[in-house]
Design brief:
The chain has 493 residues and is mainly alpha-helical. The chain is 47% helix and 9% strand. It is built from 20 helices and 11 strands. Helix 14 runs antiparallel to helix 19 and helix 16 packs antiparallel against helix 17. The protein is elongated and about 105 Å long. The N and C termini lie far apart (82 Å). It binds glutamic acid. The site of glutamic acid (GLU) has 8 residues, from loops. Glutamic acid binds next to loops.
């Protein structure tokens, strides 16, 4: 069988880390099976639609670097891939169900039933909520010929699916096993086509999955309540349903569904903060799925090769921001100088430290700084703060910030002056030689090494925590470091 899976977002919000997990599992499954991964835009909810969300979807996946084989932007044989361009198909199919006696026109104008139609929109939560609005099936037994005439004459109506009045509907979930619903518990006769001719999520979703040849539906568990209804529709059309696989939920540490309360959830926020796409992909791929024992780090290619639906967990996954940070550190450490420079440059530029198109000399400084910060950066966005001193003269520190514990200003000044002398005397600014000289000097002055380094670090970098000091001094150059030291010595006078 040629596997075809789809990611079917509704562009009603920014791409969320949980939705990216759904997309990623679909992609990995497709790749692992040599199948196709399809993007379908489920944009039937026009009230919450925004072009900006569509743009965000494209930007997010271009950045992440795993992309669909078929979709609105790349085309494909099963298009159009945007539901709002397929309205004719949905009307035709709803009509077909009416003609087969599997669906019916409903003319009820009662406010409560209008409400039902409205909430049977595109969200799972709405689908669940709407089961609270029990429709009384008033129009189910209208004479079909009469109803058809009324509809044709322009009387406002919706089209509703006939849910069998008794019996059960069951389906096999690849992950959760056999699931059975009493038909009496299925939303009584959901709307398929709204009075404005727009399809509901259920109609469009089922028609499209069928027409697009989708073989496996992998989606969030919150869609389980919609599944029996969809099965009833497949049956009504006489179609073979795709295999279903409802993915485990993604929870916050407190056991509630992951949301803004727990931290960032929009992919954009992670990106801005300076997470690497490799870290996000690696971590998200592990939310509810295992690959090989004893390994944490997987490239996208590894994941695509190793993904098995049988290795997806039933239990919910817990999103651990600390673990994600660890992954980020791992991928930052693994970057070569030129790659890491390219990644941090936009952050340095937007902090105003370098030009948007860095000059050759700026580029050289950035490259030189990479070995110093590679081990320390948690996020790319940490770079401007720790590298500021390379591009900007730090404010001259106040005396109290340069006086090591148990010393006074006069001793701190002596220590700083000794450090200055050692730097000037050093033939080169190599770390090992400098450190030996500083150590010896400290000992002869009855000081600890840190007592000399601390005021020097403040003077040159303006901070108590900086990248390794000798390397930093080498990078800014003595011609820049010495005047900073001199100003600091003045303050300690
Ligand atoms: N449009 C739905 C969503 O936003 C798709 C659900 C499904 O995959 O069937 O998640």
């Amino acid at each position: 069988m040629d596997v075809r899976v789809r990611y079917a977002p509704s562009p009603t919000g920014l791409q969320h880390i949980g939705s990216v997990r759904t997309a990623l599992f679909n992609y990995l499954f497709a790749r692992s099976m040599g199948g196709k991964f399809i993007l379908r835009l489920e944009d039937t909810d026009r009230s919450r639609y925004s072009d900006a969300y569509v743009q965000n979807l494209y930007d997010t996946f271009s950045w992440l670097g795993f992309y669909w084989d078929e979709g609105p932007d790349v085309g494909g044989p099963a298009g159009p891939y945007i539901q709002s361009e397929r309205f004719g198909l949905y009307r035709e199919h709803a009509q077909r169900l009416v003609d087969m006696g599997k669906a019916y026109y409903c003319f009820c104008t009662d406010k409560r039933q209008a409400e039902t139609a409205r909430t049977e929109g595109d969200e799972a939560t709405d689908a669940q909520a709407s089961s609270g609005f029990g429709y009384n099936r008033a129009c189910r037994n209208l004479d079909p010929v009469d109803a058809k005439r009324r509809a044709a004459s322009g009387e406002p109506h919706v089209i509703r699916l006939k849910i069998p009045l008794d019996g059960t509907t069951s389906f096999h979930d690849l992950l959760l096993g056999d699931i059975e619903w009493k038909n009496a518990d299925v939303n009584p006769d959901p709307v398929l086509l709204k009075s404005d001719g727009f399809p509901t999520y259920h109609l469009a979703n089922v028609v499209d999955d069928h027409l697009m040849g989708i073989t496996h539906v992998m989606r969030a568990q919150e869609w389980i309540p919609s599944a029996p209804l969809h099965m009833i529709m497949y049956e009504a059309f006489g179609w073979t349903p795709p295999a279903l696989c409802h993915l485990p939920m993604v929870l916050g540490q407190d056991g509630h569904k992951l949301s803004k309360r727990h931290g960032s959830t929009a992919v954009d926020e992670f990106r801005t903060k300076g997470y690497l796409k490799e870290a996000l992909i690696n971590y998200v791929a592990m939310l509810g799925c295992s690959y090989e024992d004893g390994r944490d780090l997987y490239s996208l290619e590894d994941l695509a090769r190793l993904f098995r639906i049988e290795h997806v967990n039933k239990a919910p996954a817990v999103f651990d921001y600390v673990k994600l940070e660890w992954f980020n550190g791992q991928y930052i450490r693994a970057k070569a100088d030129d790659e890491l420079s390219a990644l941090v440059t936009p952050y340095l530029a937007s902090a105003g430290l370098v030009s948007a198109q860095p000059t050759d000399s700026e580029r050289a400084v950035i490259m030189g700084a990479m070995p110093l910060v590679r081990e320390r950066l948690k996020y790319l966005s940490d770079a401007p703060e720790s590298l500021r001193f390379l591009f900007r003269e730090p404010a001259v520190p106040p005396a109290e910030d340069m006086i090591p514990k148990k010393l006074d200003a006069a001793r701190a000044r002596e220590a700083l002056a000794a450090g200055r002398e050692l730097l000037v005397a050093a033939g080169s600014l190599e770390h090992d030689a400098l450190e030996a000289a500083f150590r010896a000097k400290a000992e002869s002055m009855g000081l600890k090494l840190g007592d000399i380094l601390m005021p020097l670090r403040m003077a040159v970098t303006g901070t108590k925590v900086s990248p390794p000091l000798f390397e930093s001094i080498k990078l800014v150059g003595l011609e820049t470091a010495l005047p900073r030291i001199d100003k600091a010595l003045e303050v300690l006078r």
